[in-house]
Amino acid sequence: MKTCKKILTVLCAAGLLSSSLTGCALKKYDTPSLNSQELTYSAESEEQLKKLTDNKLSTYETLPEGKSIELNLGEEKSFDQVVLREKGDNLNKFSISVYTGDKWEKVYEGDRILEYHLCYIGKVTASKIKITAEDCIEPLKLSEVQVQMSTSREDDIKVSQYICFDDHFDEMAARTDDSFSGYYNVVTDAVIIGTISLDKGGNVIISEGEEKFADRMEAFRKAIGENDTRIWVTVGFDMNDAEGNRSYDATAEFVNENIDAVTANIKAFTEKYGIFGVDYDWEYPEKSSHWKAYDKIIIETAKVTKVSVALSPWGIKLSDEAIEALEHVNVMAYDLFDERGDHSNIFVAGWDAVRKVMKSGIPAEKILLGVPTYGRTTDKSGDAWPSYRDFDLGKWGNLIEDYPYTTADGERKTCDAYVNSYGQVRDKTALALSSGIGGIMIFREGCDSDYTEQYCLHRAVQEVIENSGK
């Protein structure tokens, strides 16, 4: 991972005072370098400015609830991102406004800043910026502010999407408007999940039979239309022990003993149905023998077709050879909670997730950051899975209040649930582009609102990609 090195030129209120800060050591807060042009600004005092530009969480400007801090860009400048860092976790809501012409305009709302938050606001041209602590638990300790203009990327940006061939798919694929087909204006790689698996002999099993699979593949290709979306399938290969229980050891043994049959059958299957590649999702290898088996199935399958894997952002132990064989890695940056119980927020499942995967040895260009289109309750219940499509949360809303659900024991409960808003998915996409990783993964199609809806999460990804660096 690259060490964050930059030079900041700071403009003090008393005049043009230049200060160079290089080779900043952020230690555990280290982050992938951002491919963005950073703008200079002035603050109310030299002391205040230094607190906001010294790359130290230990120095900060305190903002009580309802108070703002204004930063002067000196003249009208264009930018599309504001990076904020906070000492602690004291916010429920903050906003960013810009001064254009002769008035202030609010351009961003968020709930949390935490240790690192890239706020995507879309391109604006303004002379001042204002950050307001609108709702605080305790006064906000604002430790860093960076105003940035993203730069365009020359490489191809991937957007993978997991999709189930189920009754919802049948309904959506039959529609004649853009509510489903529009997703594939932005999705470059669609992964069919939950349909294909391997039996003990390494044969490919289609859960609902070949005829239905073939019909759905035809409907899918019709919906994709002229878009260049590549179609993948997730191939399950979990095995059970003699007692019928899922077993990592049995799975590793299966791979080692049946790898020739596995690769031959996968090759025949992908060629028959025009599948671009296979995706493996083994949750989760534990011992070195398991990881060696995972290496083997990746390396050998990559000799007959393209291979991707889905991995959580922790505990990755793939070999260099297996990593080299992979087309990309779909990072499962969801079902991750912070101390408040918020699900997959911009820090835990964005900045921190990217940092951890990079440290595992996965090259940046092979990393696709996963964003969920479903929520989880703040009590972390395994029985509550609200879909984004079922709620109208506007552009910035992340919280579903008093979400009702039924436990596995039949008990009725209510609890707040946290989802990724349109705004937060824009932030994660901007982070992915600016940090140089390969792109974004969406999990999954069936939980997002229709593409025709204004705040469809696929549209959030598309908006950032189409406007990056412009």
Characterization of this structure:
With 470 residues, this protein is α/β, with parallel strands linked by helices. Helix content is 25%, strand content 31%. It is built from ten helices and 21 strands. The strands form four sheets. The chain has an eight-stranded parallel β-barrel with strand order 8-9-11-14-15-16-17-21. α5 runs parallel beside α6 and α9 runs parallel beside α10. It is elongated, with a radius of gyration of 24 Å.
Lateral arrangement of strands in the main beta sheet? 8-9-11-14-15-16-17-21
How helical, in percent, are the residues? 10-25%
What radius of gyration results from the CA coordinates? 24 Å
Number of helices: 10
What composes the largest sheet? 8 strands, parallel, barrel
Structural class: alpha/beta
pLDDT averaged residue by residue: 92
Distance between the termini: 27 Å
Question: How many strand elements?
Answer: 21
Question: What spatial form do the alpha-carbon principal axes imply?
Answer: elongated
Stretches where pLDDT is under 50 for at least 5 consecutive residues are: 1-30
Strand proportion, as a percent range, falls in 25-35%
